[in-house]
Phosphate transporter (Phocaeicola acetigenes), 762 residues
Amino acid sequence: METVYLGIVIFLFMLAVFDLLVGVSNDAVNFMNSAVGAKVARYRTIIIVAAIGVFAGAVMSNGMMDIARHGIFQPANFSFYEIMCILLAVMVTDVVLLDVFNTLGLPTSTTVSMVFELLGGTFILAILKIIGDESGLLSLGDMMNTEKALSVIMGIFLSVAIAFIAGTFVQYISRLIFSFNYKKKLSWTIGIFGGISVTALSYFVLIKGLKSAPFMTPESLAWIQENTTMLVIGCFVFFTALMQILHWCKVNVFRIIVLLGTFSLALAFAGNDLVNFIGVPLAGFSAYTDYVANSNGADIHSFMMTSLMSSAKTPVIFLFASGVIMVYALATSKKAKNVIKTSVDLARQEEGDEMFGSSALARTIVRRATNINEFLTRVIPANVRQWIDSRFNKDEVILENGAAFDMVRAAVNLVLSGLLIIIGTTMKLPLSTTYVTFIVAMGTSLADRAWGRESAVYRITGMLSVIGGWFITAFVAFTICALVTAIMFYTSFAGMFVFICVAVFLLVRSNIQYSKKEKTEQQDDTFKRMMSTKDKSEILSLLRQHVKETMTDYIEYSRNAYIQVTDGFINEDLKLLRKVINSTDEQKKMLKKRRRKEILGLRRIPITIAIEKNTWFHLGSNSCEQMLYCLKRIGEPCKEHVDNNFNPIPQVCIEEFMPIRQELSQLMERTRTAIDQNNYDSADEILKQGDDLKNKISALRKQQMNRMQEADTTNLKALMVYLNILQESQELVSIWRHLLRASRFFQLDYVPQEMPHLAATE
């Protein structure tokens, strides 16, 4: 029996390793998004700074908050078996849940997930124990601490509201002081700003990061608390002078503030959130050692876990190992980059690819905000508005190459996040570092007017999606953990073993799928370079490259989908038809995103060229869209026919259709090759052959209509679907002919004289 539970404890530590890996991937956004978004240094340098902070925070942490031992449940009223059921269920749920969020690229709170998992597991066992208690003496309050869950929920609301308002206000004031061309507006203000920032971050490290360090004696903590005011004033004077001197020495003070802020938040994160990753396994280890040492052969169902009521200190080896794993995860995790990308993109200063779509609530918020802005514009005097607008002139923004926002905003993000976390700690509010840092970044981006009319609805939808994910985390963590705990409780070792296997399987499958996703979804380097460069000729060249890739991809997709959907109808393959129709819907969404990127690029090329190329760009884009609609009009009648098990298409129709399909496929492939190679020497020949193919299909349509007049009514439905295929095939030929002509006019710098007459043949 002891051997079995030793295996469970070992597995808990194995899950803790996975939890550290996925947890750091999730929480890296807390302390790295500002430095990464502002490009204050190379990504490797930012990683090194954050890694030092993470390792120092882990090693100096006491590593064990009592919440994992007795913060949610009252262990004296639970047996060893029941405690192990709860702890194993918590770890299985936590690892899988965090991995799902990381894969989706959404930041969530490890604190909330752990608390609500413990709450869910404890709640269900408490209910089961009360139902089975014949004495009737047990109550829910005897077995669980509901106050902790309530404080976490309150913390969510408070952190979201306070952080957003504070971020917006502080960034607005900071931008009025420094403006977007901050290098010309520093003078003496940078010393004061730097002094306030570094003092706040130093105080943050002392109060939040080092309060639980082993070398911090009670006397030291008491001295710091008694002399806090003197320390803060002394630090402010010293750092103000130091920052001003560094500025005179041509050192970028904002860069120092951002890197120091990254280190500070990383230190505090590791020191205070380590319990979210290893607290539960260590509680399980402590329960196991207590059972082995003191049970004296007692049954696992009757040995109560009173020992967990006491506080425990974590062995240094566990802290050191955790620090090494966290640094490794931070340096190697690709999912960390994915989560960081979500926050950075939502806070981006300039327009670009939007990760999220539009929602009704976001549209309503934007509409109301627009009305308020119009009211304020009428009320505020014109000279005041002009002065404010001069401070927010985005044409003067100073961005590092590829940066999403400038260093002023990055510094405000980190300093304000640290201050709010300090305030929350002193007020004993359970503010989540994830919530604070993310929402502060959203507030500062709003104050910087990064949410323009063209992007606001997408940014707000994204922010609401992330916030909604936080609340979903609590509900899902509670529900799933309660379910898993109950199943383990009734199925004993068999259930535990099954869930261990399920957790391992889901983690392995998730990582395999994520690796495949990374390979298939290549980074859009063309678009990134197009949005970052200032060279108009390079923008035009990159835009043409992007448009060419879009057109060739959709011609290739349409050609393959056309063959598949007609094969599905001929062979009565319902599964293939469903697959093609579903993929067509996905391609329509992808085309919408690509078109928005290309329109952003079109706005950045010289106006004279944009006017000239605008018509051909939209003709090509609309042609790609029409190809998809054409495939949809072919696929849906075919799917309905096959799904209803109607009579198949006659063989004579198949034999006359296949040569037409082969010729259409070959011409589409020649069109794709011509566009891909940017070689239009054979364009006239392809267009002529396409016109001939249209005539052939037209003749076949007339033949089919005559055949239907004489056909047996039992096969009329199949013939109607076949006639629809011919009509849409003829339309498909017209569409890709438009696409070829549009591509030719858009890509070339001259207008071929032989082309215009071809329009008359459509």
